[in-house]
Amino acid sequence: DAGVTQSPTHLIKTRGQQVTLRCSPKSGHDTVSWYQQALGQGPQFIFQYYEEEERQRGNFPDRFSGHQFPNYSSELNVNALLLGDSALYLCASSLSGLSNTGELFFGEGSRLTVL
Amino acid sequence: AQSVSQHNHHVILSEAASLELGCNYSYGGTVNLFWYVQYPGQHLQLLLKYFSGDPLVKGIKGFEAEFIKSKFSFNLRKPSVQWSDTAEYFCAVNTWGSQGNLIFGKGTKLSVKP
């Protein structure tokens, strides 16, 4: 049973550039959430996608955008990169529905370094 | 705004010592509570969770946590730690209607000396 997979695992960008991170959810899951984990901090919620739409959003600027595809995979895009965007970006998948209490399954993350 | 506080940044214990990691949250409504663990080089994984019912919940690898509503706390315990428990532990909370938005504490790094 495939877990959550993310790509790339590491990448380096310069200020002002744009980046796209990718995520495939755990088999059978239809909801994808993205988190940013800065060094020494806990993960912070960016947004969640379900049925190809953004359902919830955390306190992140519009430079952070996403997309979900019909096969439930997802992308996170960050434009006009700042040094402060350097972090581990985590993708988490879950099941939707009334029985969903929010248990998330996480990938290993994409580590972004902005120079 | 909702928040989660973990009292200890780094805890160092010897094998067989007892463990208690503190977690407090700020939210007055119904919450779901979680402890996640991140072993070195691995992804975050669920240790245990509380949704409702018995406030003492048991998780994997001998961990347990107690939800004390009056104290807004959800402390993690293990009676006897092993070297393999060395990891970073995160407490997290979400609320009904906002299940996707897990709010994490800053984490506690546990180092167990053999």
Offer a concise description of the structure.
Chain A has 115 residues and is mainly beta.
Could you characterize what this model shows?
The complex is a heterodimer of chains A (115) and B (114). With 115 residues, chain A is mostly beta strands. Chain A is 0% helix and 50% strand. Chain A is built from no helices and eleven strands. Chain A has strands at 5-7, 10-13, 19-24, 31-37, 44-50, 53-57, 64-68, 74-78, 87-94, 105-106, 110-114. In chain A, the strands form two sheets. In chain A, strands 2, 4, 5, 6, 9, 10 and 11 form a seven-stranded mixed sheet that branches. A four-stranded antiparallel sheet of chain A has the order 1-3-8-7, with no helix packed on it. The relative contact order of chain A is 0.33. The model of chain A has no long low-confidence stretch (mean pLDDT 92). With 114 residues, chain B is an all-beta fold. Chain B starts with a strand and ends with a strand. In chain B, strands 2, 5, 6, 10, 11 and 12 form a six-stranded mixed sheet that branches. In chain B, strands 3-9-8-7 form a four-stranded antiparallel sheet, with no helix packed on it. Chain B has a two-stranded antiparallel sheet with strand order 1-4. Chain B is 0% helix and 58% strand. In chain B, strand 7 and strand 8 (64-68) form a beta hairpin. The A-B interface holds A 3-4, 31, 33, 35, 40-45, 48, 55-56, 58, 90, 92, 94, 100-109 and B 4, 32, 34, 36, 42-46, 49, 51, 90, 92, 94, 98-107.
